[in-house]
Design goal:
By secondary structure, the protein is α/β, with parallel strands linked by helices. It has helices at 11-21, 119-130, 136-149, 177-185, 199-208, 228-241, 254-262, and strands at residues 3-6, 28-31, 54-56, 58-59, 71-72, 133-134, 155-160, 191-196, 212-213, 246-249, 268-270. It has a domain at 133-270: Rossmann fold, CATH 3.40.50.
C-alpha cells in the first residue's frame, strides 16, 4: 500500500509530514506542492523542486488514474495505539493569536513536547527521521562542512527564529535574542553552531558570544522560501543543527523540533 505524504507548510513541517507517513506504511511517496502566493489555505511560501532537496522517499509521479490512495496530510507527528501516550497528553500552547489545532482525537499530540515524550516514542521517531535521504549534493555539502568545522569538538546547536517573514505577524513576541545570548554564555567554553532566519540576529550573536560557527550562505536567509538555492541552504543548516551535542531552540518552531529529532533527542533548552 502506497501512502501519499502531502503538506503545504514550510521545510521542517514537510519533513515531519513525510516522517509521520512512514508510520502508516514503509512505502511512502510524496505529493509535492510549491506555493507561490499566500491565500486563505496557504500561509507558507515554498518554491523548490523536490529532488533539489531530497532523494528518498520518492516523488509521487506515476500514480494510477482512477485509483484512490491513502493520504497523510498533517504537519503533526502521528500517534499510534501502542505508543503509551495517555489521553490529553498534549499541553503545548503556541502563545499567540494563530490557532493551534491538535490533530489527535484524544489530544495525545507530542509536537513541541520534547522530553515529556516517552523514551520509546523519541527513539522510534528519531529513527524514522533518519530514513529520509537528501539530495546527493546537499548531503555532500553537509558532510564537508561538518568534517571541516564541527567534527571532534563539542558543539551546542542554536536555532533562533525571529518570525520576521510576511504572514508571521503575531509571533514576533516569541523572539528573544537576548535570552538566547544569555543562555549561550552559560556554555561559553564550548562551540556553537548558530542558524537563524535573520542575518541581523546572526551578526548580533557573533559579536557577543565566543566560538560561534555559522554556515557561509550564498543566499538571503530572510527570503529563502521563494529561492530553491536558499531552501537548499536552509536544509543544510537544519541537518548541521542535527549534528550538535545539545540544542538551544526556538519556541513553536518546527525547524528546532526537527533538528532535535535529527540529533537523537539530546539535551534541549527551548526559548
Amino acid at each position: 500500500m502506497t501512502i501519499l505524504a502531502h503538506c503545504t507548510g514550510g521545510l521542517a513541517n514537510r519533513i515531519k509530514n513525510m516522517t509521520a507517513s512512514f508510520r502508516l506504511d514503509p512505502v511512502v511517496e510524496v505529493h509535492w506542492v510549491n506555493i507561490e502566493n499566500y491565500d486563505a489555505q496557504n500561509y507558507h511560501l515554498f518554491k523548490c523542486p523536490y529532488y533539489d532537496l531530497f532523494s528518498f522517499p520518492k516523488l509521487a509521479e506515476n500514480l494510477e488514474k482512477g485509483k484512490s490512495y491513502p493520504v497523510y496530510d498533517y504537519d503533526k507527528l502521528l500517534i499510534g495505539p501502542d505508543d503509551g501516550i495517555p489521553e490529553n497528553f498534549a499541553q503545548f500552547d503556541n502563545k499567540c493569536d494563530k490557532e493551534y489545532r491538535y490533530t489527535d482525537e484524544l489530544n495525545r499530540n507530542i509536537d513541541f513536547e520534547y522530553h515529556r515524550i516517552p523514551e520509546n516514542v523519541k527513539v522510534m521517531y528519531s529513527y524514522l527521521f533518519s530514513q529520509i535521504r537528501l539530495n546527493h549534493d546537499v548531503q555532500k555539502r553537509i558532510d564537508n562542512f561538518y568534517n571541516k568545522y564541527m567534527k571532534n569538538i563539542i558543539v551546542v546547536s542554536v536555532h533562533i527564529r525571529s518570525w520576521n517573514r510576511e504572514n508571521e505577524e503575531g509571533r514576533q513576541h516569541l523572539h528573544k535574542v537576548d535570552k538566547f545570548i544569555e543562555t549561550m554564555m552559560d556554555y561559553k567554553k564550548l562551540h556553537f553552531f548558530v542558524s537563524s532566519d535573520s542575518t541581523e540576529v546572526i551578526e548580533k550573536v557573533k559579536k557577543e558570544v565566543p566560538n560561534v560557527i555559522t554556515y557561509n550562505r550564498k543566499t538571503e536567509r530572510e527570503t529563502s522560501r521563494t529561492n530553491p538555492e536558499a531552501l537548499q541552504e536552509d536544509l543544510i543548516e537544519l541537518y548541521l543543527l542535527g549534528k550538535g551535542n545539545m540544542l538551544i531552540g526556538s519556541y513553536y518552531s518546527s525547524y528546532s523540533e526537527v533538528a532535535w529529532y535529527l540529533m537523537g533527542c539530546k539535551e534541549v533548552i527551548i526559548i
